[in-house]
Amino acid sequence: MKTAYVAVYETLADWEIGYLMVELRTGRFTGEPWQVVTVGESIEPVVTMGGMRIVPDVTIADVKPAAGDLLVLAGSGQWDHGGGEAFAKLAGRFLDDGVPVAAICGATAGLARAGLLDGRKHTSAAKEYLQATGYQGADGYVDARAVIDGDLITAGPDSPVQFARAALERLGLADERKREAYEGVFHRADPAAYATLMG
């Protein structure tokens, strides 16, 4: 069974990664359930922005990128206050080992500060949001809901469905027809897409 490591920290933006985590864990539309492992700086519980209490399964020190298949980073208040450096370093280790990293909203700012967006196509909440970090990767910014560049998947805070779709694409977990139906159902509320998604 493949493993998705999910970084957890105070004020984690639950909704941003919810669609992706459900699809990975259940495999309901892909036929391939994954193991989900939460990663904290310590094993002390954290409270998400939505008020859910999460006890990390493992700490950053326990994680070996080669033993996983994806690292997921959600937004949170920490990223906007210059925090999250340990998780940005972990993302760098994953990318160095050729293991995909999916970052949404504020997590993209943390990766920008760490230099991980330089030379890679990416997106976020807005180009100006990332430029405020002082990063050197603005030439690679793409005004899109979600962007895949090699092992890096990025999205802005308004695009949790597109984030999930892009991750499923990068991971090879659904074909284009099913991914389009997925977005049709969960983003556009298109009843005609439901039969394709379920089929």
From TrEMBL:
Query: Which SUPFAM superfamilies does the record associate with it?
Result: Class I glutamine amidotransferase-like
- Decide whether keyword Cytoplasm is in the record: no
Question: Which Pfam families does its entry note?
Answer: DJ-1_PfpI
GO BP: any one term: proteolysis
Keyword Coiled coil carried by entry: no
| Molecular function as annotated in GO | peptidase activity
Q: Which residues form a coiled coil?
A: none
Please give the InterPro entries that the UniProt record associates with this protein: Class_I_gatase-like, DJ-1/PfpI, Prot/Nucl_acid_deglycase
Q: Which domain of life is it from?
A: Bacteria
Could you list this entry's UniProt keywords, alphabetically sorted. Answer: Hydrolase, Protease
Q: Which residues form the DJ-1/PfpI domain?
A: 2-169
Q: List the protein's name.
A: Intracellular protease/amidase
What is the protein's species of origin? Kribbella aluminosa
